[in-house]
Amino acid sequence: MVQARRDKDHFALLLADLDNFKTVNDTLGHAAGDDLLVEVAKRLKASVREVDTVARIGGDEFALILTRIQGPEDAAKVAAHVVEALARSYRVQGLDITGGASLGVTFWPGDGDSADALLKNADVAMYRAKERGRNNYQFFTSDMADGVVDAMRIESGLRQAIEAGELAMYYQPQVSSDGRAVSAEALMRWHSRELGWVPPSRFIPIAERTGLIASLGDFALWQACRQCLAWRERLAPDFRIAVNLSAAQFKHEGLVERVATVLHEFNLPGSALELEITESVIMEDVARGQSVLAGLKQLGCKLAIDDFGTGYSSLAYLKRFSVDVLKIDKSFIDGLDEASDDVSVAEAIVSLARSLGLDVVAEGVETAAQLEVLRRIVGDYGYLAQGYFYSPPVPAPEFEQRFPAFRQLRLVGEHA
C-alpha cells in the first residue's frame, strides 16, 4: 500500500478458497491434504508474474497481490486463469482429485484503505462466489457488504429464535382428487422481534451455511409430530403431515434414530409422517441415500422426492430408492394453464410415477385452470394438490377452523 501510494499506482488483492480441501482431508488424511496444498501453491505461482505475491494465509485459503494492475479487466484475466488452473484435477496419492476454488477480488484504494478492510471485503466477495455455485470469481461491490451485515443480523437472531419462541410451523393442506384434505405440509415461519417477518428464502440458506439448519430441522420434526397427534385425535384418525428434511439432516448419521425417537415420544405410527427430500440431496451419495431411505421406510414413514424434475437424478436410480411420492415442482405447475412445455413435463412425471407405482403431489396450484389441466393429465390415477387455490400456509388454529371446508368435495374451488 505504501509503495502503490508512492508510485501513484493501483493493485488488486485476490482471496482464493479451495472448494474441496475438507473432503480430501477428511477422506484421505492430512498428508494428502498437504500434498494438495503444495500442488495448489505451484499452480498459483505459475498463474502470476514474478512481481506479484502469492501467500497461504491459513488452512486452505490463499491470497494473491497483483501489483501495477491497470484495471478490472487485467484482474479478471488473472482471476479467470487462476480459476481454470485450480479447476483441473489433481493427482494425490495415486488418485485423481476434483479441483476447484472460489475467488474474491478487491482493489486498492477503491475497496478499502487498510489491509484489514481489503482482506475483509475480499472475503465477502469470495463467499459470494461460493454462493454463486463455487469455482468462479466475484469482484467486491458495496451492496455485498450490506448483504453480509444483513446476513449476520439474521444469523444472530436465528440463534436465539427457538428459545425466544419466534419460530412457528404453518400448515398447507394437501387435497386429494376427490376434494378431501388428507394431509398437510409443515412449513417454518419466523417472526423476529427485531427484524419482523423474515421469509424462509432469506433465513433457510443462512441456516444451512452456518449449521443452524440441524436445530431448525429438529424443531420442525418435533412440532409436526406434536401437531399431527392432536389432529389425528380431533380432525381425522389417519391424518398425515409432510416435513422437509434438509441436506444436513439427511447426511446426519443418526437421522433414522432421531425420527424413531420423536415418533415414539408422541406414540405415532410412521405413517403419520411424510418425509420430503430433494432429489439432488439423495444423489450426492447414492449408496448412503438408499440406506437412509430404507431405514426411514422401515419405520413406516412415507417418503417423497421434493421438487422433482429440477435436479439431476438418473431415472435408472429412481426405481432403486424406497420412495412413495413424486412432488411436481411449482415451476412446472405455473404453466399448466397455458399451452407450454410445462404440460409435457407434468405428463412425463405422472407417467413415470404411474409406471413405478408412486403417488403424485402437485405443489403450487393457484388457479382453477391449472387444476383442470392437472386432472386431465392424471386422469383416474389420483393425485394430491396443494397451493393457494385451496389455502396458503396458515397457523395450526386457523388450519383447524378451515378444515371442514377442506374435507368437502370441491371439483372447482376458490381461494380459501
Verbal overview:
This protein has 416 residues and is an alpha/beta fold. The chain has 2 domains: 2-140, Reverse transcriptase/Diguanylate cyclase domain (Alpha-Beta Plaits, 2-Layer Sandwich); 153-406, Alpha-Beta Barrel (TIM Barrel), CATH 3.20.20. The protein is 48% helix and 23% strand. The chain contains 17 helices and 17 strands. It has helices at residues 2-6, 21-28, 30-47, 72-87, 115-131, 142-161, 200-210, 213-234, 247-251, 255-265, 279-284, 286-298, 315-318, 330-333, 341-356, 368-378, 396-406; strands at 11-18, 53-58, 61-67, 90-92, 95-97, 101-108, 137-139, 167-176, 181-192, 196-198, 240-244, 273-278, 302-308, 325-328, 359-363, 384-386, 394-395. The strands form 3 sheets. The chain has an 8-stranded mixed β-barrel with strand order 8-9-11-12-13-14-15-16, surrounded by 5 helices. It has a 5-stranded mixed beta sheet with strand order 2-3-1-6-7. A two-stranded antiparallel ribbon has the order 4-5. Helix 6 crosses helix 7 (200-210). The longest helix has 22 residues, at 213-234. The protein is elongated. The relative contact order is 0.08. Residues 409-416 have low confidence and may be disordered.
Low-confidence stretches: 409-416
Q: Please tally the β strands and state the result.
A: 17
Name the CATH homologous superfamily of the largest domain. Answer: EAL domain
Calculate the mean pLDDT score and round it.
86
CATH architecture of the largest domain: Alpha-Beta Barrel
Shape: elongated
Task: Characterize the largest beta sheet: strand count, sense, and whether it forms a barrel.
Answer: 8 strands, mixed, barrel
Number of helices: 17
Strand order in the sheet with the most strands: 8-9-11-12-13-14-15-16
End-to-end C-alpha gap = 63 Å
* Computed structural class: alpha/beta
The level of helicity is 40-55%
Number of domains: 2
CATH topology of the largest domain: TIM Barrel
Q: Over the alpha carbons, how many angstroms does the gyration radius reach?
A: 26 Å
